[in-house]
Amino acid sequence: MAGDGRFRLHIKNNRAGEEVFRVTPDRLEAALRRHPEVARQVDCLVDWDLDEFDASMRTADGLLTWDLPTEDLRLRAPRLRWIHVIGAGVDHLAPFDWLPPGVALTNNSGVHADKFADYAAMALLMLNAGMPRLASAQARALWRAEFTTPIAGKTVAVIGLGAMGRVVVRVARRLGLRVVGVRRSGRPMRQVSQVYRPAQLADALGAADFVFLAAPLTAATRGMIGAAEFAAMRRGAGLVNVGRAPVVDVAALVAALESGQLSGAMLDVHDPEPLPPDDPLWRVANLTITPHVSSDAVGDYMPRTLDLVFDNLGRLLRGRKLRNRVRPRLGY
């Protein structure tokens, strides 16, 4: 901290990013008013891209950002104690060998919950109603009736039981679904009928009418859902991916849709993003594409982010445990 005892927080906005992810003066001022005790102890510099990055980081104690230049960070930011990433996923910063010892890294896990609950319910209901198939038929002017059964009593497998996965569990139970899950620890979870370890993934997939992917991208999850996993699913199952695109083998996904092994799929994450206009995925039948919008609420995302940041800053100043601490060894 500075000689005056104040914490210096560098806030890095990206000009290329959407407005929903920016710390604007009015959003910052409103958040400081909501956290008066922290406001009395912090100086904030709102920067754009790398305009003032190096000069500011020489005295910065904290950094709020999506991305950052990681090379020689300890030399560039000798006082840095804490970095907060304004997204739940941090795979774009991996591997974390650049992170100086003693610098805490936190993420935005949980900020997305309310908006994401709406998307999760919509996705499950759309898959149950056959909407990806109906939309594909409409695009070809085909009158193809889809008669389905109610969703209550069916089973969803939630792969990844972190903050977003827990939202899926809550929504699914509200819709009357049975829930099974997969998590690294295999620990039981309330409202989840059975929790499997990753080594038991095929068992979880085979038990489900819907598979909801909410896993982070790590070395262990990259390519986790491929041809063998699609074959393990019930024929006619539906798939949603809101985690990270490389968790799924795209060629295997397309083959599963074309063969009818999957009745439909919804993807909110893609590689690359934006998905180029000439990408073949745009023309795959029975596939619904949403442009990474499942969980970021207009007008609400950054205020919630700043509330988390200032709550954590208060914890840091009091020597308390930080919320959403990233574990570099695990990648999330």
What are the low-pLDDT stretches, counting only 5+ consecutive residues below 50?
none
CATH topology of the largest domain: Rossmann fold
Strand-residue proportion = 15-25%
Oligomer: single chain
Cα-to-Cα separation, first versus last residue: 27 Å
Describe this structure in words.
- The chain is an alpha/beta fold.
- It contains 11 helices and 12 strands.
- Helix 7 links the parallel strand 6 and strand 7.
- Helix 1 crosses helix 11.
Comma- or semicolon-separated keywords:
332 residues, alpha/beta, Rossmann fold, 5-stranded parallel β-sheet, 12 strands, elongated
Write the layout of secondary structure elements.
Elements: E1 7-13, H1 25-34, H2 36-39, E2 42-48, H3 53-57, E3 62-65, H4 73-76, E4 82-85, E5 104-106, H5 113-128, H6 131-139, E6 155-159, H7 163-174, E7 178-182, E8 194-196, H8 201-206, E9 210-213, H9 227-232, E10 237-241, H10 250-259, E11 262-267, E12 287-289, H11 301-317
Parallel strand pairs: 1-2, 1-3, 3-4, 4-5, 6-7, 6-9, 7-8, 9-10, 10-11, 11-12
Helix pairs in contact: 1-11, 5-7
Structure summary:
The chain has 332 residues and is of the alpha/beta class. The chain has helices spanning 25-34, 36-39, 53-57, 73-76, 113-128, 131-139, 163-174, 201-206, 227-232, 250-259, 301-317, and strands spanning 7-13, 42-48, 62-65, 82-85, 104-106, 155-159, 178-182, 194-196, 210-213, 237-241, 262-267, 287-289. Helix 1 crosses helix 11 and helix 5 (113-128) crosses helix 7.
